[in-house]
């Protein structure tokens, strides 16, 4: 297990469309998932996508009981999701602030579908199918965007609600966002 380097916005590897995972339950995949959790936890992240550590596979992880970067967010179950497919369950969208470990020090308000279904498999190929809303739905959409080469600033429509975390959220634990 190891903490990997997180690529930052501007690196062209963050703009690629990720390849589907075709082999499950392999030692290589187990190591990759363990490294991703180590990396996400070291950075206090709510989620991480494989392309953020330079691995161009359709693999995201997310979840937390309590997250220092999003202290008001309800808990999200710890999840390993491969080859995901998202289906919005209504046209309704919600604005909410997001950050990204690849865009350190910044937050922006991003419109996301309020309710959706996500489907995929875990690292052993076991199917996952959930219907979610709120912050859980937001995290999934943010992470799956990474698999499409999309970073959250590319989704912002109101740039008056985009800025430095320390300015917009001065009460947030300074160690919670780099
Ligand atoms: Ni991100």
Summarize the structure.
The protein is of the alpha+beta class. The protein has helices at residues 27-42, 134-147, 165-168, and strands at residues 47-49, 59-64, 76-88, 93-98, 106-113, 115-121, 127-133, 162-164. A five-stranded antiparallel sheet has the order 1-2-3-6-7, with helices on both faces. It has a three-stranded antiparallel sheet with strand order 4-5-8.
Q: List the strand order in the largest sheet.
A: 1-2-3-6-7
* CATH architecture annotation name: Alpha-Beta Complex
Q: What's the N-to-C terminus distance?
A: 22 Å
Kindly state the number of beta strands.
8
- Helix-strand string: HEEEEEEEHEH
Question: In the CATH hierarchy, what is the superfamily?
Answer: Peptide deformylase
- Protein structure class: alpha+beta
Describe the structure.
- This protein is α+β, with helices and mostly antiparallel strands and 178 residues long.
- The chain has one domain: Peptide deformylase (Peptide Deformylase), CATH 3.90.45.10.
- It contains three helices and eight strands.
- It has helices at residues 27-42, 134-147, 165-168, and strands at residues 47-49, 59-64, 76-88, 93-98, 106-113, 115-121, 127-133, 162-164.
- The strands form two sheets. The chain has a five-stranded antiparallel sheet with strand order 1-2-3-6-7, sandwiched between helices. It has a three-stranded antiparallel sheet with strand order 4-5-8.
- The radius of gyration is 15 Å and the shape is globular.
- The mean pLDDT is 95.
- Bound molecules: nickel (II) ion.
- Nickel (II) ion is lined by residues 100-102, 142, 146.
């Amino acid at each position: 297990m190891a903490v990997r380097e997180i690529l930052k916005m501007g690196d062209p590897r963050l703009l690629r469309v990720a390849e589907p995972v075709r082999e499950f339950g392999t030692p290589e995949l187990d190591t990759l998932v363990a490294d991703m959790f180590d990396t996400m936890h070291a950075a206090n992240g709510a989620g991480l996508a494989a392309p953020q550590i330079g691995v161009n596979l359709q693999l995201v992880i997310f979840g937390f009981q309590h997250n220092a970067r999003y202290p008001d967010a309800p808990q999200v179950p710890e999840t390993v999701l491969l080859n995901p497919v998202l289906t919005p369950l209504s046209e309704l969208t919600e604005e909410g602030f997001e950050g990204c470990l690849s865009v350190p020090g910044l937050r922006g308000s991003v419109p996301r579908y309020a309710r959706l279904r996500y489907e995929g498999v875990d690292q052993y190929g076991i199917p996952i199918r959930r219907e979610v809303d709120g912050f859980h739905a937001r995290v999934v959409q943010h992470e799956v965007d990474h698999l499409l080469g999309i970073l959250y600033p590319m989704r912002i429509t109101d740039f008056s609600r985009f800025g430095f975390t320390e300015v917009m959220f001065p009460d947030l634990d300074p160690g919670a966002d780099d």
